[in-house]
From TrEMBL:
InterPro entries in the cross-refs: CorA_TM1_TM2, MRS2-like
Family matches, as Pfam families: MRS2-like
Keyword Transmembrane helix assigned: yes
Organism: Musa acuminata subsp. malaccensis (Wild banana)
Protein topology in the membrane: Multi-pass membrane protein
GO biological process, alphabetically ordered: magnesium ion transport
Subcellular location: Membrane
Similarity-based family: Belongs to the CorA metal ion transporter (MIT) (TC 1.A.35.5) family.
Location of the region described as Disordered in the Swiss-Prot/TrEMBL record: 263-296
Ranges of biased composition (kind: Basic and acidic residues): 274-289
Alphabetized CDD domains for the sequence: Mrs2_Mfm1p-like
Protein name: Magnesium transporter
Gene Ontology CC terms: membrane
Amino acid sequence: MEDRRTPPFLASIPKPASSPEGVRFDGVVNPSFHGFGASGLKKRGQSGRSWIQIDSSGNSQVITLDKIALLRRCGLPSRDFRLLDPVFVYPSTILGRENAIVVSLEQVRCIIMADEVLLMRSSDGSSTHYESELCQRVRRMKDQNDDLPFEFKSLELALELVSASLDSQVTELEVEIYPVLEELASSISTTNLEHVRRLKSHLLALTHRVQKVHDEIEQLMDDDGDMAEMYLTEKKERMEAYLSTDGYLNNIQSGNWVSQSAPVSPTCSSTGQPEKDSSNMSFSKHESSRGSSTRGRHVEELEMLLEAYFVGIDNTLSKLLSLKEYIDDTEDFINIKLDNVRNQLIQFELLLAAATFVVTLFAVVTGVFGMNFEDSVFDTASNFNWVLIISSISCAVIYSCFLLYFKHKKLLPTYH
């Protein structure tokens, strides 16, 4: 009979929590980690997400794709998909890839390809607005024979919606913050200061978001290579033309493709289309042989499109910077007013201290004559009046000397 007892050297080895159900460590199946093993992680990683698919004809539908299916469909690395995940907080980004454009701008998160757009559904209604507007523009583009590529129409709409959204937020902030600053300048109170503090925090956060979109567009405009990567329709047409030429047939006949035994990426190995992968590689080599000298001649259209929205974003950023400068000027004005009040209090305290000193001297004279002793001064009644007169004049002279000293040291303001 087979011994099922645990060997001594295995008893001290801890069982990993990620072990799948049915793995034997000591000859016994351990089912206590159901759902937390490799199979559980795989299921969670393959959970589907709703996307809005918009094709180049202006038709849209809601589809459900998991991460692996989406990466296979778009040919994107996994790190690009994380930019679109609403769970993660990433700044605004526009990335040009071989077969797609990854757009993550504020509330618009989508994957733009040559013949379709995969738009992530959102709960704030921005995805619905983008969907309806893009479908209308695509149909209108066909009716008007507009030669702007589909991917540029999709990118233009994303930039337009983001620019309009940021500009409207800045306008609302301006309408709200200017009256509050005027009221704070005239009446300094704790309520007004707290209100301005909240508005300034909102202003700084909005400035950071607009600055990121501004820098992303500027960085994209400065790189002709990244802009050339975004001509998806042109690349697709060139690839189709290349596949129909003799160059591709010669590559097939000479065996110039990737061997099926060669290691390939996980997203491509399961598709069962090595010929397509080899054609993509051959086309990439063919495109690279063309050189980068022709890139500058083909990016003017995209550069002009980006420049138009760059000017709008730059104008929005200028409004925010002007608003921030106005807040800083108001803060400086309030600090000057508070410093002036503080100086007046110090001056009043100085005068009050001098008057207290003089009154104390008069009280000393009163205390001396209030002692219980006999003196000839008290024999005549008029002497008491003279004591009062002399004491008062002496105190006035001493206080005047204090004032002259303060004036000389410029401790008191001089009014002209």
